[in-house]
Amino acid sequence: MRLGVFLNSVDRTLEDLVEEAAAAEVDAVYVNETVGWDPVTLAALIGARVPGVDIGTAVTVTYPRHPAALAAAALSAQAATGNRFVLGIGPSHRPAVEERYGVSYDRPATHIRDYLTKLRPLLHNPPHIPDVRPPKLLISALGPVMLGIADELADGTILVWTTAKGVTELVAPRLHGKEIVLTAMVGVTDDADALRQQIATETSAVGDLPNYRRHLDRQGLTSVVETAIIGDEKVVAAELRRLEEAGVTELLVSVAGPERERTLAALKG
């Protein structure tokens, strides 16, 4: 199982993010779409300055971007990083899409299927960019319909708020030889209860988003904090083994709690 780290770009300078990416010493680093940086551009800027690590988006929102425009940006990022770019895309959520971009969020699965049928050929036939390979293409799929689309039209999925049991029962059976990238909050600590309470407070609104609520319900979970990997080194190592056995091909870590260096050290074994 490969190891990646999520870089929080909110209110961060490029120098900060390059330094963090270089110091992480992992297989991959990913950036998200926020109210600031453009994720594909940011990934290209970081990847061009940090060699030897894959750089991806987790995820780029599809609704405000024409497939041709995103394909051009992704291939440019692939060229800038020496073919180390990973394009993660997703439809986001109704409030963000309709309020921020003023477009309808109806039938997101249909939207994603149509989007991928246009995007994928453009990525595989890059015009006028020598020596560029198609980037790995992942989608944020949680439910059975979206996972089916990921299996058919993408290279895999980027998951969030999912336990090893959820991967085994709900995700892996619907993907056939495809990538399963799991984003998870991980924190090594000697006070697991306190850190869980902190995470529960910080993520209290996440479970109210319909896409996430349905995914949690399918797993029999009440809160996203139940998917966090929290505890000492032995607890975290045991959970990493369960994730790998479940079929996770890459763990994308969002470090939780104050002991960042301790957490990263434990993840690297």
What does this structure look like?
The model has no long low-confidence stretch (mean pLDDT 96). Strand 2, helix 2 and strand 3 form a beta-alpha-beta unit. The chain has an 8-stranded parallel β-barrel with strand order 1-2-3-5-6-7-8-10, surrounded by 6 helices. Helix 1 crosses helix 2, helix 5 packs parallel to helix 6 and helix 7 packs parallel to helix 10. 45% of the residues lie in helices and 19% in strands. It is globular and about 55 Å long. It has a domain of 140 residues: Luciferase-like domain (TIM Barrel), CATH 3.20.20. With 269 residues, the protein is of the alpha/beta class. It contains 11 helices and 10 strands.
How is this fold's topology laid out?
Layout: E1 2-7, H1 14-24, E2 28-31, H2 39-49, E3 54-57, E4 60-61, H3 67-80, E5 85-90, H4 94-101, H5 108-124, E6 136-139, H6 144-153, E7 156-160, H7 164-171, E8 179-188, H8 192-202, H9 210-218, E9 229-231, H10 233-246, E10 250-255, H11 260-267
Parallel strand pairs: 1-2, 1-10, 2-3, 3-5, 4-5, 5-6, 6-7, 7-8, 8-9, 8-10
Helix pairs in contact: 1-2, 2-3, 3-5, 5-6, 7-10
InterPro entries: F420-G6PD/mer, Luciferase-like_dom, Luciferase-like_sf
Domain Luciferase-like: 13-249
GO molecular function: oxidoreductase activity, acting on paired donors, with incorporation or reduction of molecular oxygen
